[in-house]
Every structure is written in C-alpha cells, then in structure tokens.
C-alpha cells in the first residue's frame, strides 16, 4: 500500500511539473509561434536566461531544434513553417545574451568560453524530450554551427539527437594569413587577462542591407537584436572562438550523421555595395567550410547551394526554396 501511494505521489508530481512546463509558454513575437523564458544559473555578468521558441505541437515524436548565429536570433519563420509541414515539430533557441534572451545588465553576444552555451542546449533538449519527442535533429547556423558540433562531441550521451544540419557553419576566420595565424592567437592570449578589451567596435552593414526589406532584401527583423553594424567584439569573445576553432579543426568524433551546407561561392565585403552580396557568402569563406567539414566525424555529407548567401535560408526565394527541399530530403531518410 505504501509503495502504491509513493507511486501515486511521484506520478502526481511529474504530472504537475509537466503541466507547469507547458503553462510557461506565451505567444511569441512571431505569429504562429510561442515561447518560454528559462532561468539559467547566473554567470559572471549576473542573471542569465535562454528562450525556447516553438510551433504548437502536432503530436509527432520527431523534432528539429534550430540554433542561430552571432549577432542573431530566431526570426526565420518560414523555416519553422516548412519543418512542421514536413512532419516534424519545430523548436528554436535564442541562446543566453542573444535576441529574446538579452537582459539590460548583459553584454550582448558575449562569452568567455563556448561551453557556456552547452547548458542552454542541454535545457532545451530536456524540455523537448519531456514534451514527448524521442528523435531530435539539430539545425544550426554560423556560430551556432561551431557551438553544436562541440556540444555533441562532449555530450555523446544525448542519444535522442539523431543528426546535425549545419548552415554555413563558422569553422574558421575569414581573414588574411597574418591575422589568422599571428594576430588572432596573440589577441586570444591577452583575452584571458583582458576579456573586455574591445578589438572591433563595428563592422560593415552590407550583409544586413542584403537582408532588410527596406534596403535591398526581403526580411524584417529587430535591428537592436541583430545590429546592421554588429556588436563590439572583445578579446574575451575572440579567445572563446579561437579555442573553439582550434578544438574543432583538430578533429571531432561525432557518431551521428552530419550535413554541412554552404553557398557555392564567397565574395569579399568591400567598402561599397555590390550585387554579388545577394548571391554569395560575404561573411565566411565557403572553401574553409567545405575543407574542414570532414573533420567532424565519419558520417559527414557536404553540399552547396548555388547563389546562396551566408544564412542560406535567407537567400533570395528561388535559392532558399532549394534549401528547404534539401532539408526535407535529408530529414525524411534519417
């Protein structure tokens, strides 16, 4: 009798937890989406949160979790709509100090170590699993494409992750030989002692111009969360990225299938507008992406999108439609 009562109490507690978990969702800023703010353990800047966004659940046990890049957040609603149309539930994660998760006391996009984001991904995956999903595919862009392979390499126990899709992942700096091999390591060294040292106040805005509907693009986004000139970059952040690059380029041992997508070409950002900005990756070198990709594991597939831009799913409609079709084809055979 006591054992029965214990089981009833445990079941009731779990049920209450599950109900309260669902009750935390509120309507998102994107129509047709909802979100919950998740309180994380405070760090060196104080209180920290991450934000989990989702489409209303359909009842399937398969899900896709999207993770954004640097100076970014989830606003690519077409992506989530298409994923759900393919028969998968869709989630997106605004990492700590990005987008919906930025708090007034924080330095946006700042970290001292890539590992800081692992707790956010862990938490998101736990929620997704608690909401009934037994198979999860990660889809990550740019800096998210650096974070997620490193996360999976150190969290091999996450058996529910069945595959990793990388959209123009940030595997290497797109700079001169001197900057990449001399300047970056030196700044990264000093970043350990002077993490707040600002090494770049802002960059060019042409990438954002190629995206924004009131400029030369097709998209609307919050320019306080995704700044056209970017956020100031610090030596501490650069140290975290450099350490991540070094570890990844030495080789990982991911056991799940990995699919690496990039544009078919890069174009160096200049001091004036060029039409090639709308049909090329002007942020990263696609040759670096394709060269480094096989180092992630034994099941890596590489692919390119003709005339794709840095965030492939923000490319001009004919080209992003190709991306959606390729995502569908990759997912349905897993």
Summary, kept brief:
The chain has 9 helices and 11 strands. The chain is an alpha/beta fold and about 325 residues long.
Q: Could you explain how this protein is built, in words?
A:
The chain has helices at 2-23, 77-85, 118-130, 144-154, 177-191, 206-211, 235-250, 286-292, 317-332, and strands at residues 26-27, 34-43, 46-54, 62-67, 89-94, 135-141, 161-167, 198-200, 233-234, 258-263, 300-305. The protein has 334 residues and is of the alpha/beta class. It has one domain (2-332): Alpha/Beta hydrolase fold, catalytic domain (Rossmann fold, 3-Layer(aba) Sandwich), CATH 3.40.50.1820. The protein has a 9-stranded mixed sheet with strand order 1-2-3-5-4-6-7-10-11, with helices on both faces. Strands 8-9 form a two-stranded antiparallel ribbon. Strand 10, helix 8 (286-292) and strand 11 form a beta-alpha-beta unit. Helix 4 (144-154) packs across helix 7 and helix 5 packs across helix 7 (235-250). The model is unreliable at 1-23 (pLDDT under 50).
Based on the model shown, name its key terms.
alpha/beta, disordered N terminus, Rossmann fold, 334 residues, 9 helices, globular, 9-stranded mixed beta sheet, 11 strands, two-stranded antiparallel ribbon
